[in-house]
Design a protein that fits this description.
Order of helices and strands of chain A: HHHHHH
Number of strands of chain A: 0
Oligomer: homotetramer
Radius of gyration of chain A: 18 Å
Distance between the termini of chain A: 46 Å
Helix content of chain A: 55-70%
Largest interface: A-B, 73 and 73 residues
């Protein structure tokens, strides 16, 4: 495995596909299992913040910062692996979701309010 | 908001930053709150799979497939927004995590086994 | 189904067992699926708090309070159903866990600190 | 801390209240934080099942079984602590939820189907 920096999510998909194939892990990578693994990583991320105040959660000590970054990477890995299995283009899906949110939450109507619609 | 397709995560960061600024939502977007929002979306994703068999989770009906895609987008949105706030380069972090996993799980040692190390 | 108040977790186990049997839902109630359903309910609980400040989370408006209560009930239902399937006595397990925590976190050593051990 | 077995959830509430007070942990136990801690424990529970088949999730090896039990206890501890803070009677809430579910999912209509309503 070389150390070149990844260019985009498509390349990440390829890398994860190869990683799973080399280990015969495709059998475990059902969408059901991957979405479980994803939420487990999301919880490991949240765990770093669970007892912190809002202010503390912004100014993390370097060691916590590094662990948080690793958990965020794990979330992205499982999300990307799932996207590969289901044939989802994540940036396209994000684009569509932002447009839907823009219609649902017009800036002039929701300014300063976090109420869900 | 135009309809051009996003090119990369950096552009997504910019879009989400602007989206939050226009709505005065920065006050809610602490790392603590965003990691909560992220796990809530991860749960909405998992909910689609919770009673399905492994096989059913691969062959989703079109409507479920579209909802799953939207939930995956939500996970990416909050993950990217959090990355922007903490100054994390997600693809770099993913690269480092894959390399760490490659050392932790050498292919010839873990083939076909899902046991955590 | 009568409206008598439940006396204890054992009675809740019986009620849930009957509820599942009447609907032929035992086939879905594997420990794997139930622990997914449990975390989905835990997320619906968390969702009510995700954008709130600590102070706001204590003083909930009545409607939110009722919804929070219903989500807490859902967590208990799935936890109890899982306990029934795995033959776990939840209060015994809680007792053992509290004793372990008391050894791990002696009051005089950890006072006022939320650091995990 | 004596070793007597707990009789009910009310006693568990008292024990947890005392445990928090002795450690000056009330400051961390906001509903917002406790619901985060609860979902983190729910994820640690799910983690044991994430790569297992349905069948494997029923027949756990003894060591996994013990760990699963400890995670289930953690979920109950945080749920009970939250119930104490919000003044929720968990068994009452469970009773009400079962009755609502019975109306929403009449046995003769939903037999053998896991479709959400």
């Amino acid at each position: 495995m070389d150390s070149r920096v990844m260019r985009d999510i498509e390349e990440l998909k390829q890398r994860l596909r190869q990683f799973a194939a080399e280990r015969d892990w495709e059998q475990f990578h059902t969408p059901k299992n991957l979405s479980s693994a994803l939420i487990v990583e999301a919880a490991e991320l949240l765990e770093h913040f669970q007892w912190l105040t809002a202010e503390e959660s912004i100014n993390l000590p370097p060691e916590t910062r590094a662990e948080v970054e690793a958990e965020m990477a794990d979330v992205l890995l499982y999300l990307t692996r799932l996207a590969d299995l289901l044939g989802v283009d994540l940036l396209d899906a994000a684009e569509r979701k932002i447009q839907r949110n823009a219609e649902k939450y017009p800036a002039h109507e929701v300014r300063g309010s976090a109420t869900k619609r």
